[in-house]
Amino acid sequence: MTQQQNLADFIWNVADALRGPFKPSLYGRIILPFTVLRRLECVLNPTRDAVRAQHAALAGSGVELDLVLPAVAGAPFYNTSQFTLATLGSTSTRANLEDYLARFSANARQIFEQFGFDNWLVKLEGANLLYLVAQKFAAIDLHPDRLSNHEMGLVFEHLIRKFAEAANDDAGEYFTPRDVVRLVTTLVFATDHEALNGQGVVRTVYDCAAGTGGFLSSAIEQVAEWNPDARIVPHAQELNPETYAICVADKLIQGYDVRNLKLGNTLSDDQLKGERFDYCLANPPFGVKWEMVQKAVLDEHKSLGYAGRFGPGLPRVGDGSLLFLMHLLSKRKPAEQGGTRIGIVLSGSPLFNGGAGSGESEIRRWILENDWLEAIVALPTDLFYNTGIGTYVWILSNHKAPERRGKVQLIDATDLHSPMRKSLGSKRKQIAQAQIDEIARWHDERADGPHSKLFDTTDFGYRRITVERPLRLRFEVTEASLAAYAAAKGADEVERFQALMGRGAYNNLAGLLAAAGIKKLGKAARKAVLDTLGIRDPEAEPVPDADGTPLPDPELREFENVPLKQDIREYFAREVRPHVPDAWIDEGKVDDKDGRVGVVGYEINFNRYFYTYVPPRPLEVIDAELKAVEAEIAALLGEVTA
């Protein structure tokens, strides 16, 4: 890690030449594409002359260059220019560099188009810095023999972080720390270890918020460690053009077909529609609003329902994390074809945000009732570059092992971390390989213990029942209440009620009407009486509805979340009735899906399951500490006033 960081710092020092004409927030726009260009140049350097000779030999032949030159280049891309960064010359530098870029194969040329590199070349030339910057990069050795693809990925990450710091931006939106990536890929691939060690294995992996492609690279590296003959085919979509460009460059150098890597917003424009993958990995941005794509998402939800990606429901606009999760689940292969395993990093809010019937709860319900959630791992805080919040790894599968069916494993790994020698932004902790192995062992053993607990999927569900209590009113006719009644819609028999003014209160509606000589009131007049002449009184008799049953008091209405495994009436008799004997369950509030009383909800209150009571310290200890602090303050004050 230190070597890559040092190299990233060395590359970043080129920015010293940019001081003055360019603001620090713009350095990354220049340094990143030049770094990519130099890396591609170093990869192609050994076959450069052979490619140019073959290109000259094919001139005028009509042969498609993309069918021949990649084999000569020994890479899926090539360049036929006579120029390199070292030979651009001090005159006509921009024209020569533009020729150099234009003669890359189309799959590599698009990288610089996404960077908007042409515009920066014009600006560098205008500042009389283009030749100097090109020469500085020409002197940096980024050949794969010196720097592996994994190490080069780390260099890019360090550069992006520096760029983000200079621009006061969020570097963490673009890549995930490699220790977190390694943990996720270990948990996702672990159960397929045997299959991945077979002969001629080909598996597809997909990241819907790819950033610089770190998840994809880690997946490829890990499978290669287990079985060098296995082949992982990466697929991805990324929103940011610059990080997309780095992802494409990285995969090109590794020899992959970058047509599987797409640029665009995954939520509003799925560019791999209909595709299914063996593995899905993602770390979508935490708590990001999705109002920019709200119309497209709503349209898909309403028009396609469960035939689309967002059938179960939609989360609140303030956090689109669960949209990404539903998107990944839409990419699952049928179980009979081996199914799909998913690893996604989320913040805590998708675990519990939203009550019964909300979009978030319905999404969790859909996942749990289909038995796709295998495990959730709570990670330590301070693991990410741009936030110190608690995060969670969700592992999902639509082809669970028999012993995991109907079960969900929760793993508390919040205490499993190592200190970093130097903080990187908000990242102050890391998960060492031995700790990753420990978490993987807990996952594999599925045992109940201090750090691992196994639950039924229904343990996270509940029914929200509506508990009503009777409306109790006493009735009193005063000048003010009669005026309010007379003004109310549907008021009737005003003169009869006026005769009761000053006669005191009536403990029930029947007594009021009898005293006024009224045998029956219309529905509107009855409501007006309750609203204006009635006063809430817990000692009064319940007000009956037209059918004689007690009217509920909206102000006393409460809700109870009854665990799915418990009978709601038994729960009510045990937990509610002893405290409020006149309460009842509103049987009309039923769940939309199963039609039973109570609205079904799901939440995963992680902390509740791993909470350990710590008794407060003895009062004598606290008192002694306070006295010691008081003595220290008094001594300091004595020094000041002496």
Structure description:
The protein is of the alpha/beta class and 642 residues long. The protein folds into 3 domains: 2-167; 194-446, 3-Layer(aba) Sandwich (Rossmann fold); 470-554, no CATH class. The protein has 25 helices and 18 strands. The strands form 4 sheets. It has a 9-stranded mixed β-sheet, with helices on both faces. β2 (231-238), α13 and β3 form a beta-alpha-beta unit. The longest helix has 23 residues, at 619-641. The protein is elongated, with a radius of gyration of 34 Å. The mean pLDDT is 91.
Structural category? alpha/beta
The helix count comes to: 25
Number of domains: 3
Helicity, as a percent range? 40-55%
Please outline what is shown here.
By secondary structure, the protein is an alpha/beta fold. It has three domains: 2-167; 194-446, Vaccinia Virus protein VP39 (Rossmann fold), CATH 3.40.50.150; 470-554, no CATH class.
Structure characteristics:
Rossmann fold, 18 strands, alpha/beta, nine-stranded mixed β-sheet, 642 residues, four-stranded antiparallel β-sheet, 3 domains
How are the SSEs placed, and which strands pair?
Blueprint: H1 2-12, H2 27-44, H3 48-57, H4 65-73, H5 93-102, H6 106-115, H7 117-126, H8 130-138, H9 149-167, H10 178-190, H11 193-196, E1 202-207, H12 214-226, E2 231-238, H13 241-253, E3 261-263, E4 279-282, H14 294-304, H15 321-329, E5 341-347, H16 349-352, H17 359-369, E6 373-378, E7 391-397, E8 407-412, E9 418-424, E10 427-430, H18 433-445, E11 452-456, E12 461-468, E13 473-476, H19 479-487, H20 494-498, E14 505-506, H21 509-516, H22 523-532, E15 534-536, E16 558-563, H23 568-576, E17 584-585, E18 599-602, H24 606-610, H25 619-641
Helix pairs in contact: 1-9, 2-9, 2-13, 3-4, 6-13, 10-12, 10-18, 19-22
